[in-house]
Amino acid sequence: MSKLKLWIHAFRLRTLPLALTSIGMGSALASYNLSFSWSILWGAVLTTLCLQILSNLANDYGDYTNGADDDNRIGPTRAMQSGLITAEEMKKAIVYFVILSLVSGCSLLYIAFAEESISWLPVLFFLLGIACIAAAIKYTAGKNPYGYKGLGDVFVFIFFGWVGVCGTYFLMTKELTWEIFLPATTIGLFSTAVLNVNNIRDIQSDTMAGKKTWAMYLGAQHARLYHVIIIVLGIACAFVFVWREDLEYTWLLIPGVLPSLWNAVSVYKMEDPTRLDPWLKQMVFSVLIFLVSFTLVVSL
Fold this sequence. Notes:
- The protein is mostly helical.
- Helix content is 73%, strand content 0%.
- The chain is built from twelve helices and no strands.
- The protein is globular and about 50 Å long.
């Protein structure tokens, strides 16, 4: 494998669509409220991609140095685990993407707030961006990574859901209502479900490495039940939003949630963790299908 292909593998491209669903949801909601902005959309997409790749690289570095990525791991081989990328090279790549995230984020704030007179708003979002960078790195890297203390689900829910969706919506509309938190919660819970499948699959290797996750705390059986619960709650939040808005084509949401329900049932029945990886990919696909159907509901 060439060095370029190796780094592309380290970026974990299959995780990028999930990261963009929060931007898509926030943009769909802003369009529904007649405040959509293409320039903010592209700025948010670029910033989110930089942050997600940063998170993936830091996760690769952190899990390898902490012993979670070893020969006992069931999932695909990671970049540092393969021995083809050194720790020094990975740390440099992490620094590069911290810089790219800052530059992209600051450009996004300039686009969003160039004509605004409220000076504290850009500062607030800049601090939020710093928090996003810190969360991306501290998931599994550094001292006391929160991903090793059972907090990964909480942070994924907050940053993929509330921060990503509500942040994008606010950048476009300059307002925020409590109803927006309903679809934001759906995206947050669905994203957490993706992480949960990953954690159920890796219970054995994570336990050996001392990495504590909710799946490890709950045990495989209860973690599968937890998976069903968060997916059903996510679907419920989406339907509450469209019913409150009294949208004409609410029924279009039904085919959009069927793949996630299929994932919930399938993961619940799957007792062999070595066979869970396809359902990890299918859950990512389910979130994208839901986003498309939700966008149609609020657009028609």
